[in-house]
Specification:
Elements (H helix, E strand, L loop, with lengths): L12 E2 L5 H4 L7 H6 L9 H11 L4 H5 L1 H9 L3 E8 L3 E3 L2 E2 L2 E10 L9 E11 L2 E4 L3 H8 L6 H6 L5
Antiparallel strand pairs: 1-7, 2-5, 3-4, 5-6, 6-7
Length: 162
């Protein structure tokens, strides 16, 4: 939720090009760190907890240095998390879409063997180049597409008799 007087998060675009040189650009192992600097990131998420722990405890640094290891560690926890839901699609040798999809979700662990965790998706975000956008909610899309129903009688009344 946006602070009072600020536009809703799904109506803003965020970027910070000054962060990119230190991260060596946006790539698989930096995308979640870049996203964590945005106003979309919840600082109470499991991602933030692991980031903070790794900076205090050097033995945890290998967990945050490689995205797949980091996301595997997140899968072992319950709570709010951000994961890469979609990497840029390859369109040909050396060419990709450049679009990352980051998902905000809550994981509820199931302590039964063979039963998958329960996931509740809260939002998706698109990272295009260095710009981050929140995907619109499904309800927002529907409400913008619904046309006020016109009574059937009104359509008959204006119908061309030929």
């Amino acid at each position: 939720m946006a602070p009072p007087g600020q536009p809703p998060l799904d109506e803003i675009q965020w970027s910070d090009p000054s962060l990119l040189p230190a991260m060596q650009g946006i790539h698989s192992n930096s995308v979640l760190f870049y996203f964590a600097q945005s106003p979309f990131f919840d600082r109470t998420s499991n991602n933030a907890v692991i980031f903070q722990q790794a900076h205090i405890n050097p033995t945890m640094m290998p967990i945050i240095q490689e995205r797949r290891t980091f996301e595997a560690h997140l899968r072992g926890m319950s709570g709010l998390e951000y994961i890469v839901a979609q990497e840029p699609a390859e369109m040909g040798w050396g060419f990709g879409t450049g679009v990352w999809v980051i998902r905000k979700q809550t994981r509820r662990k199931r302590n039964e063997p063979g039963v998958e965790d329960e996931l509740t998706v809260h939002a998706d975000y698109f990272l295009v180049g260095e710009n981050i956008y929140q995907a619109p909610a499904f309800a927002d899309i529907l409400s913008s597409r619904i046309v006020r129903p016109v009574p059937v009688q009104a359509r008959w009344h204006h119908a061309d008799p030929t």
